[in-house]
Amino acid sequence: MDNTRPRMRWWGWGEDGNDGPVKPGAKVILSKHCGWPAGVDRPHVELEDVALPESTLTDQVRTRLGEIVSEEFVRDDRATRISHAAGRSLPDLIRLRAGQLTSAPDAVVYPASTAEVDALLAVCAEQSVAVVPFGGGTSVVGGVDAVRGEFSAVVSISLTRLDQVVDIDEESLTATVQAGVFGPDLEETLQARGFTLAHYPQSFEFSTVGGWVATRSAGQQSTGYGRIDENVHGLRVATPAGPVELRTTPATAAGPNPRQLFVGSEGTLGIITEATLRIRRVPSSVQADSWFFPDFASGTAALREMEQSGLHLDIARLSDVNETAFGLAQLGSELQRKGVLAYLRARGITTPCLLVVRYDGAQSDVRARRSQGRAIVRRRGGVNLGSVPETSWEKHRFSTPYLRDQLLREGMIVETMETSAPWSKVEELHDSISAAIQAEMAERGTPAFVLCHVSHLYASGCSLYYTVFAKQQVGAEIAQWKALKSAASDAIVAGGGTITHHHAVGTDHAPWLPAETGQMWLRMLRAAKAEVDPTGIMNPGKLMNGPDQL
Amino acid sequence: MDNTRPRMRWWGWGEDGNDGPVKPGAKVILSKHCGWPAGVDRPHVELEDVALPESTLTDQVRTRLGEIVSEEFVRDDRATRISHAAGRSLPDLIRLRAGQLTSAPDAVVYPASTAEVDALLAVCAEQSVAVVPFGGGTSVVGGVDAVRGEFSAVVSISLTRLDQVVDIDEESLTATVQAGVFGPDLEETLQARGFTLAHYPQSFEFSTVGGWVATRSAGQQSTGYGRIDENVHGLRVATPAGPVELRTTPATAAGPNPRQLFVGSEGTLGIITEATLRIRRVPSSVQADSWFFPDFASGTAALREMEQSGLHLDIARLSDVNETAFGLAQLGSELQRKGVLAYLRARGITTPCLLVVRYDGAQSDVRARRSQGRAIVRRRGGVNLGSVPETSWEKHRFSTPYLRDQLLREGMIVETMETSAPWSKVEELHDSISAAIQAEMAERGTPAFVLCHVSHLYASGCSLYYTVFAKQQVGAEIAQWKALKSAASDAIVAGGGTITHHHAVGTDHAPWLPAETGQMWLRMLRAAKAEVDPTGIMNPGKLMNGPDQL
C-alpha cells in the first residue's frame, strides 16, 4: 500500500466514482425554500490552474528533514502540496474549487516511526519551521490549514506511514494503534480478531486514529460505543520538547487527567503518534428500528427517556421536520412519498420527524432493550416503520459529503455545524439556532433551508447537528459563509450550547471559545503549551491560538 | 446547623460512640501473622497536651480576612487549629495521637459564599498567605496538611458554610451543589426528590462534594454510578487570579477538557466552590448476591467477564484469600466460621475468596442481569451464599476506620493503599505488591498481614485495594510507615499500576507521580497553575509541587 498517496481528490470529498446528480425531489424542496439557481454549472479549476505560493523551505532544512525520513519522503511537488493545503470545510472547498489557495505547506514530510516524528519536531523547533500534523485531512474547521505564523516555513507532517496496529490486549480489551491508521484499515484488523472500536465519524473512510484523538471526535455510533475521548486509555505524543508517554490505566486519581489535555489538542501541543484505545467484541446481534413522531419535541422526549432509563441505544438519530421532509423528498418516487405522508396523516402526523435507532449486543439483551424502547416510543406517539429506514440510512451514511460537492457545482452552498446542550435547553436552542441562520441568510438575499438532527445522546443532554442550504452569493461566497457561521455560532453560545460537539475548534470556532471556556482556561492552555512547544511551532493559529474573529 | 463545628474527633476517625473492641478472631489471626502485642494500651494525648506552634497570622491580615467573612468566622483557637491540622492518614493519626503536630493552620476561615471565597483568595494572594482548602478533612494522603511553604502564614479555608444544593435540573438529571455539602446531606436532599448521586467513598459521612471533586474520588458504588470525574458536568472554581466558570455541557469537542484539569487538582489551582453533577433516579430495585470462589484468579476472571459483557454491576467487591480469611475470623462464632469452611471444603474450596455484588435498576432489568451474572459466576466455580454477606458488608461499610483507631491504641498499625491496572496485569500486580510489602516489613521485624480486594471494575481493568496490618515499631512508627509506603508504591509503579486509584496524590504519593505521568506533564501542570495562582499560595507542597521523596 502506498501510504503517501492522498486518499481524497484534491478539490473535494473522497474519491471519484461516488458522485450522483442531485435528486429531483431535493431540487424541488431547495427551489421552494432557497430559490434553486437553475442551469448553473461551476466546475472546479484544473490542478495546474491553482494559484500556489512558492515553497519557502530552504535547502538546508529540506536536507535535515530528508536525513531523518530519507529524501524521497520530503515532498514539495504541486499535487502533494495542494492536497495538503486545506481540510474539507465549506470555505476550504470554495477556495480549492476556485483555485485560490491563500496558503499551502512548503513541503509534506512522511515519517515512518514515532522516533522519526520525534526527530522531525526537534529539527523543526531548531529551525523555526511551523508544523501542521496531517492525518486524513478531513477537518471541517480549518484544523489542517498551513498557517505559517511568524515562521520562515511551514511543513505538514503526514502520519499516514504510521499505519500499524501495534498490539491488541484481548484480556484488557484495548488496542494500541499508530496515529496514521485509517478507519477502514483499523476495523478490518480488529474485526478479523473479533473486535471493534466502532468509531464511525462521517469521515470514517478518509480519517485516521490520530485525527480522531486530536480532534476529540465522536462517531455515528458513539451514543453506544462512546466518544473517542472516552475510549483513549493511553497515549504517546511527540512534542518539540520531547516525547510524552501516558501509561495505560483504566482509571486513576493521580491528579488532573493528562490524557484529557492531549485529547482534543488539535496538534497544538504535539503530534499524537500512538493511542491505546478501548475496544469491544463484535456484537452478536444488531437490531434496528425506525419511527415517525408527530413533532420534534415528542421525539426528543422519547430519546431522553430512553437514554435516561439506561436503555443504551447504540445509534440514535432524530431528524427534525425539515430534515425529515428533505429525506422524504429524495425517496424513490413521488408516489411513494405521497403514500408515506397519507399513511402518517391517517395517524394524525402532519409534520413527521424520523427517528432511527439501533441496538447492538447479545441477542437476548438486544431483544429486551428493543422491546423496552418500543414501549417508550409508542407512549410518546411514535409510529413504527420497521428496520428499513435505519438500514437504508446506514448504507448511505458516508455519502452525503459527495452531495455537497455536487451542490457546490450547481450554485448552492451547504454548511454543517453542531453543538450539544443539557436536555432542558435543547428545544429552545434548536429553534433559536435555526431562526438565527434563517434571519441572517434572508437578510443577505439567500434564504436558507435549515435541517437539524439529534445524533448523540447523553444522560444530561444531546447533540444538535445542522445542515444549511442556500444559493451561492456569487463572488462573495466566503463572506456569505462567515455571516452564516457567525450567526449560528452566536446563537449557540447565547443559548448555552457548546461551540462544537465533535467537529473541533481549529480556526473557525476559535472566536467563540473564550465565551465557552473563559479566557483564564485559554491562558492556562497556552502556558501548558509553552512547556512542550516553547517556540510555538505546533499548528499555529488553531485552537487556543486561533483568531479572535472569523 | 453549625457548619463550623468539626465533624470528626480531633485525634481520630469520625465521632465517638462507634468504637468497639477488636474481635477475638481478628486478634487470633493478627497474632499468628504479625505477633499481636498483647496488653498494649497507647491512648492519644489530651487536646491541651498537643504541641501547637504559635499562630503567625498578623493582625492586619486577620482584619482583612474578617472584613470579608466577619470576625467571627476567622478562628485561631486551639481546638479549631488542631482539628484542621491534618487529614486521616496513618502518619496523621500517629502524629495526632502523640500530640506531635509539625504544622497547623494559623487560622481557619469560613466563607459563606463563592464571592467570599473569591475575595479571600485575592487577599491571601496579595498578602502572601498560603491557603489550604478544607472540606471534611478526610484526606489520607496529606492533602490538607498546613504546609506553609515560603509564605508568612497559612490559613485553611473551610468550605463547610457553602452547604447548599443550588439547583436540581430534573430534565437534564443534574444537580448544582456547593462545595461544602457533606455526603449524607446531599443524599438526603436528592433522595427527597427521588434522585441520587450514589457517591459513597468510605469517608462518605465526613467528606464533602468539593473534596470529592478536588481529589478525583471514587465511591463504593462507582462501578455502577461512575467515578466523580465522570459525573462532573460543570464547575465553578475560585482562583487567586479570579473565578473560573466552566459551563455545563453533556459533551464537547471544544479542545482539551478544562473540567478534567480542575477535577483532581487537589486545591493546587484554586478552590472548587460549586459543581454540577450528574444525578440519577433512585433505582426501584436493588438485588445483591454473594459468592465464594476457589481462588482470587477465578474471581477476577468472573468479574472481568461480567464487566466486559456489559452486565453493569453497581457494586462489586472481591476479597483475596487473606481478606476473606480475616472477614471469616470476625464472624459471630468460631462454630459458625468452621461451619462455613466445612461447607466450602465439601465443594472443593479450601482457599475461599468472597465476592459481593449488587445490581440496581428497574426490577426486570435487575432480574435479568442478576441471572446472567449468576451464570457467569457459576461457570467460574463460584458457590452462592445469597444476599446476606453483601447486605452485611453494606451495613458496616463506613465503620472500618474506627477499627484502625482501636488497633492503633492496641499497638498495631493499619495502612491502606490502592491502585488500578489493565486486566492483563492484575494477577501479577496483586502478587508483587503483597510480596513487596511483606518482604519490607519482615525485614524491619514487624511482619505484615496483607489483605486485598478488587472494588472497582472497568472494561479494561480494575482496582486493587490493600489493607496492611503490622505491629507498631514503637518510637519509629513514621519511619516504619515510610518504609511500608515506599515498598508498596515502588511495586505499584514497577508493575504498571497507577500510584492511586481514588485516594489522590497529596504529599504522600507525589514522589511516584513523575514515574507515572512523566516530568513533562508536571511541568505543564505547574505552568498552568502559574496562570491562576501566580504566587503559588494554593495548597503548597501537594500534587505537582509535592515532595520528591517520602
UniProtKB/TrEMBL annotation, chains A, B:
> Per the UniProt record, which residue ranges are transmembrane?
none
Q: Which UniProt keywords apply?
A: FAD, Flavoprotein
Recorded superkingdom: Bacteria
Organism per entry: Brevibacterium spongiae
Domain FAD-binding PCMH-type span(s) in chain numbering: 101-282
Name of the featured protein? FAD-binding oxidoreductase
Family membership, please give it: Belongs to the FAD-binding oxidoreductase/transferase type 4 family.
